[in-house]
Amino acid sequence: MKILVLHGSSREEGNTEQLTNLALQGIPHTSIRLREKEIRPIHDQRHDADGFAPVADDYDEVIEAVMAHDFIIFSTPIYWYGMSGYMKNFVDRWSQSLRDKRYSFKESMGQKRAYVITTGGDQPRLKGLPLIQQFQYVLSFVGTTYDGYLIGEGNKPGDILGDKRAIEDAKLLNEWLKSQQ
Amino acid sequence: MKILVLHGSSREEGNTEQLTNLALQGIPHTSIRLREKEIRPIHDQRHDADGFAPVADDYDEVIEAVMAHDFIIFSTPIYWYGMSGYMKNFVDRWSQSLRDKRYSFKESMGQKRAYVITTGGDQPRLKGLPLIQQFQYVLSFVGTTYDGYLIGEGNKPGDILGDKRAIEDAKLLNEWLKSQQ
Amino acid sequence: MKILVLHGSSREEGNTEQLTNLALQGIPHTSIRLREKEIRPIHDQRHDADGFAPVADDYDEVIEAVMAHDFIIFSTPIYWYGMSGYMKNFVDRWSQSLRDKRYSFKESMGQKRAYVITTGGDQPRLKGLPLIQQFQYVLSFVGTTYDGYLIGEGNKPGDILGDKRAIEDAKLLNEWLKSQQ
Amino acid sequence: MKILVLHGSSREEGNTEQLTNLALQGIPHTSIRLREKEIRPIHDQRHDADGFAPVADDYDEVIEAVMAHDFIIFSTPIYWYGMSGYMKNFVDRWSQSLRDKRYSFKESMGQKRAYVITTGGDQPRLKGLPLIQQFQYVLSFVGTTYDGYLIGEGNKPGDILGDKRAIEDAKLLNEWLKSQQ
Question: What is the top-level taxon of the source organism (chains A, B, C, D) (predicted)?
C-alpha cells in the first residue's frame, strides 16, 4: 500500500505535522507540503465551451502523486474551523481533474482509501466536526474509502505532545497502517 | 447599515452571484469579487518571535472594506462541500488581522452582523450544512452576529432561477435588508 | 401519492403542527399524533436467540400506516436539539420492523419519499441542523428519498405565524406537494 | 468529584455499557439504567396557565440523582443515529425541571461537567457526529461543561472489545477520571 501524505499546514513543525509524523514513524511514505507548491485557486470553467484551460502551476505534479498512491492522508490544521486554504485550493482543483482526459479521476479515486489528521486549538474534537463531515462528502463524491480521522488539540508548537489521547490514537494508527502494508 | 458583499465565486455570473444580486436588488451596497484580488494563503507566524510579516497583496484592502461596513454577506458557491478556496484564503488571513495593531479586529467584528448565501449542485440543503456550521463557529469566534443563511440549488449557469424556494428566500431577505436600513 | 403526517409534538396546536397544517392545506392526507398513541421505547433484542418479542402497544398500527403511504412527513418540534422523544421512540422501533417477517421493511421504505418539518425556539436554523443530518442518515439507511426539510422559528403558541420565511416555505411546499399528486 | 452514569441502552451487557464500565473501572460512581425506570415522554405545558402538571413516574428520582452529582456520563448506544429513546425521553423532561421551583436547574447544571460515551454499528465515528453535536447544544444550553466524548464501534454483544481505539480511549478516560478525583 503506497501512502501519500498531503500536508496542508502553513508553518514548519506545526502540531499537525508532528502528529502525522508520529502516525507514520517507520512507515515508508511520500510526503508533500502544499505550502511549498504553487497551486492557484480554481477558475470554474466547467460550463465554458472549451472547458478548463491549463494552469501553469504545481497542481498537476501533486495530483499525479495522488494518482500514483493508494492511501492518502490529508493532514491539515484546523484553520477557522475548516481545512487550510492551501488544502482547499488543492481540493477545489479536483473539479478540473474530473474533466481531465489524462485520468479517469473518479475511477482512480474510487480505488483509494483516505485518512484525515487534524489539530486545532479551540475544542477541536467538537468544533472540528464540520471539517470531518466535509471530508465525508468530498471522499464519498469521488468514491474514496474514508478509513477514519484523528483529531488532536494544540495551539503553540509542541502542544500536541501533551494531548495523550491524540498521541495514543497516532500510535494505534501507526500499528494499523503497518498491518495494512 | 452599510452592506458589504464578498463574492467567493471563481466565475462570472455564477448562480451564487445571481442569487445574491437578487437579494440585494435596490439596496445600496459595496461589492468585492475575491477572484479579482490577489490574496495569498496565510503563513501562520502566530508563534514567531516577530509575529506576522506584512504580505504585499490585496488582503489589507479587502479587510479594510470589512472594517468599514456593518453587515457582511459571505456569498460563496459550495465547492467540494465547503466555501471556495478564494474565500477560505481570505478568512484564514483573519489570524493575521487578529494580531494587527492597526485594528481592534475582534472588537470591530463583534459589532457587525453577517449572512451567508451559497449555492451548490449536489443536494446543497443537506450537504452544504457543514459549511453553514463552519460559519457558525467562525462568526462566533469573532463575535459577529450570524443573522442567517440562504442555500440555493444550481449547477449550470442560470439554474438558480429554477429554484423557486431560493428565489423566494432571496426576496424575503431583500425585504428584510430594506427594513434594516 | 398517499401522504402520511406523523406529528411528534407533545402539545395541542403547537407551532410545528400549525406549520405542517399550512403546508398541507387542501391536500388529502392521513395524520397521526404520536402523543395519542402508546409506543414503548425499543427493547433491543436483535441478538437474542428468539429475536424481538411482540409488544402490546400501538406501534404496529402506526408502522402499518407508514407501510400504506408513499410520502411520509416527519413533523416534530425541536426538543433539546433533536426530534421529540415521542418520535424517537417510534423510530427506534424500526429495528424491530427490520426483522419483522410480515414486512419487507427496507424494501418498502426504499420506495417511499420523506420530508421533515420542524420548529424550535433557539436559533433553529442553526441548532436544528444535527436533527436534519440525523434524518439524512436515518432515511438513507432504509433507502427513503429525503425530499427536503422546512425549519421554522417559534416558542410560544402562534409564534410561527410571525416567521415569514417559514410561512413562505410552507406555501411553496404546499404547491409542490400538489404538483406531485 | 461525584460521578453519575446514565445508561441509555435498552439491553443487558450491550457494547456501550461494557465500554463505559471499562472507563469507570476502579472508580466509585453511581449508575442508573434508564430502561429500569419509567420515564414518560414530556407533555409540553410550558405555555399552559398552570405550567407543568406533576407526573407520577421515576423522572424525579433520576433528576435528583443528577442534581446530587458533579460529573454526568451520558452513556447511550447510537440508535438510528441519535441517543436512545430512553435517554431522549429523559432529556426532554428537563424542560419541566427548568421550571421546577424545587431546583435552580440551570444554575446547578452550570456547575457540572459531562461526558458522552456511545457506540454504534454503522460508521459511528462519522454517523454518530450529529449526536455529539446535539449534546454540545444541550449541554451548552444548561451551561454544563462538555469534557468530551468517546465513540466505539460494535454491533453484536462483545464487539466493542475488538475496537482497539475505543478500548484505548476508555483507558485514558479512566486515568483522567482518576486524576480528577
Answer: Bacteria
d(CA A36, CA A7): 10
Enumerate residues 6+ apart whose C-beta is below 8 A from A102.
none
- What would you report as the CA-atom Rg of chain B, rounded to the nearest whole angstrom? 16
Backbone angles phi, psi at C167, to 5 degrees: -65, -45
CB contact under 8 A, B80 and A91: yes
How far does the CA of residue A85 sit from the closest CA of chain B (Å)? 5
Q: Give the whole-angstrom CA distance, residue A6 versus residue A72.
A: 7
pLDDT at C44 exceeding the cut of 90: no
Q: Which residues of chain A have pLDDT under 50?
A: none
pTM summary value: 0.96
Q: CA torsion D45→D47→D48→D52, rounded to 10°?
A: 40
Q: Yes or no: say if A161 and A167 are a contact pair by the CB < 8 Å rule.
A: yes
Question: Whole-angstrom Cα distance, residue A126 to residue D115?
Answer: 12
Q: Which chains have 3+ CB pairs within 8 A of D?
A: A, C
Q: How many helices (H) and strands (E) does chain A have?
A: 8, 5
pLDDT digits (tens, 9 = 90+) for A50-103: 899 999 999 999 999 999 999 999 999 999 999 999 999 999 999 999 999 999
CB C28 within 8 A of CB C3: yes
Q: Check residue C68 and report its DSSP letter.
A: T
- Domain A3-180: give its CATH architecture: 3-Layer(aba) Sandwich (3.40)
B124-161 per-residue burial string, b: 16 or more CB within 10 A, e: under 16: bbbbbbbbbbbbbbbbebbebebbbbbbbbbeebebbe
Strand partners, A30: A4
Cα separation, B111 vs A35, whole angstroms: 34
**CA distances for B130 relative to A2, C115, C122, D83, angstroms:** 30, 20, 19, 21
In chain D, what is the straight-line distance between the N-terminal and C-terminal CA atoms, in Å? 5
Task: With beta carbons under 8 A apart, name residues in chain B contacting A131.
Answer: 130, 134
Domain residue extents for chain C: 3-180
Backbone angles phi, psi at B113, to 5 degrees: -125, 160
Residue A151's beta-bridge partner residues? A118
Q: Rounded to an integer, what distance in angstroms lies between the CA atom of residue D19 and that of residue D15?
A: 6
- Using CB atoms, pick whichever of A45, A47, A92 lies closest to residue B85: A92
Neighbours of B110 (CB within 10 A): 12
Cα angle C12, C16, C22 (rounded to 5 degrees) comes to 100
Give, in degrees to the nearest 5, the angle at Cα C74 between C69 and C78: 170
Cβ-based interface (< 8 Å): residues of B facing C: 125-126, 129, 132-133, 136, 146, 148-149, 164-165, 168-169, 172
